[in-house]
Amino acid sequence: MPGLWRQRLPSAWALLLLPFLPLLMPAAPAAHRGSYKPVIVVHGLFDSSYSFRHLLDYINETHTGTVVTVLDLFDGRESLRPLWEQVQGFREAVVPIMEKAPEGVHLICYSQGKHGLFEMALPHVHAV
């Protein structure tokens, strides 16, 4: 019978520490209260925005509220168009997003997509 009581009642240490539980709450992990920077994803040569659906889902699940734009430009064989045309297309898609984000954006770029955005955004890049 004494073993039964021991299982049901918390130890004396737990009872002594219970009043301090509210002090520990700020240290507990909490949802991010601020806003995240927008994320722009650019695929590479011969790829498409469809390839990044899992990344898009992951960012939305782990960083709820983050604005994620997966550029749907120059997919597949269209990625062989002249780079200057692609840079112009990237500029037209990215500049409005960047103008709405005074704190900056995160760029996730692969292969040729990286080259196109860096050509366009080089004066604005603060960290790579």
TrEMBL record:
<feature type="signal peptide">
    <location>
        <begin position="1"/>
        <end position="30"/>
    </location>
</feature>
<dbReference type="Pfam" id="PF02089">
    <property type="entry name" value="Palm_thioest"/>
</dbReference>
<dbReference type="InterPro" id="IPR029058">
    <property type="entry name" value="AB_hydrolase_fold"/>
</dbReference>
<protein>
    <recommendedName>
        <fullName>Lysosomal thioesterase PPT2</fullName>
    </recommendedName>
</protein>
<keyword id="KW-0732">Signal</keyword>
